[in-house]
Amino acid sequence: MASKQPDHEHREDEDAPAAEDEDTGAQVVPIVKLEEVAVSTGEENEDPILDLKSKLYRFDKDGSQWKERGAGTVKLLKHKETGKVRLVMRQSKTLKICANHLVLPSMTVQEHAGNDKSCLWHASDFADGELKDELFCIRFASVENCKTFMEMFQEVAESQKPKEENKDASAAAGLLEKLSVEEKKTEDKAGEEKPAAAKEENETKKDEEKADTEKKDGESDSST
User: Alpha-carbon torsion 66, 70, 71, 77, what sign?
Assistant: First the structure.
């Protein structure tokens, strides 16, 4: 008859701690050596003048509906050398570019009807690697952020006008102001000359009346 092993012996075997891995001193050399790579964002030569969290939409002409481009950070970046400003927006998680276009003098931004936290504008966008005419709508978390974006966008668009055009506009404004001043001076002078002419006319009339009176008096004396 086979003898039975006590159960506590099996429990001791199960509870016994596993042997720790021994340090053999061997060194493992990596097969592939990874070197640190500098990641370029393309924004190194630009200064951010605006940075706001938002959600961007584009209007799908084929489907006649708005489609979301992504949620992330919209930036206005000014080039350090050329002074040109572009709008760039990336998705917050994937960093995929949602919008990428220059802010041109001809561009205007307007508030979205019925939503004071959103605004619209047209642009020739290069986010997909080729120029496309897009109608964008961007929505912010607050009315203040939306107003800040609109004001900065319009300010940048105005600043991108050629200097000669700005110079001509200033010259035209100065000429109009000069003409207005000269016209006012002419009116004032005419107003001053009118009373003088009336006074001179009255004096002439009095002289004529005096001469007529003296003539009549002379005739009366001679007849007497």
Answer: negative
Q: How far is CA 24 from CA 19, 28, 29, 208, in A?
A: 14, 11, 15, 139
CB count within 10 Å of CB 104 equals: 15
Could you tell me which residue, 146 or 11, shows the higher pLDDT? 146
The pTM is what? 0.58
pLDDT digits (tens, 9 = 90+) for 147-200: 999 999 999 999 998 875 555 555 556 666 666 666 666 566 555 555 555 566
Q: What is the pLDDT of residue 173?
A: 62
Which pair of tokens denotes residue 146? 């939306």
Q: What is the 3-state secondary structure (H, E, C) of the chain?
A: CCCCCCHHHHHHHHHCCCCCCCCCCCCCCCCCCCCCCCCCCCCCCEEEEEEEEEEEEEEECCCCEEEEEEEEEEEEEEECCCCCEEEEEEECCCCCEEEEEECCCCCCCEEECCEEEEEEEEEEECCCCCCEEEEEEEECCCHHHHHHHHHHHHHHHHHCCCHHHHHHHHHHHHHHHHHHHHHHHHHHHHHHHHHHHHHHHHHHHHHHHHHHHHHHHHHHHHHC
Q: What single letter denotes the amino acid at residue 202?
A: N
Q: Which two tokens stand for residue 74?
A: 């919209």
Q: What average pLDDT does range 101-130 have in this prediction? A: 95
pLDDT of residue 221: 54
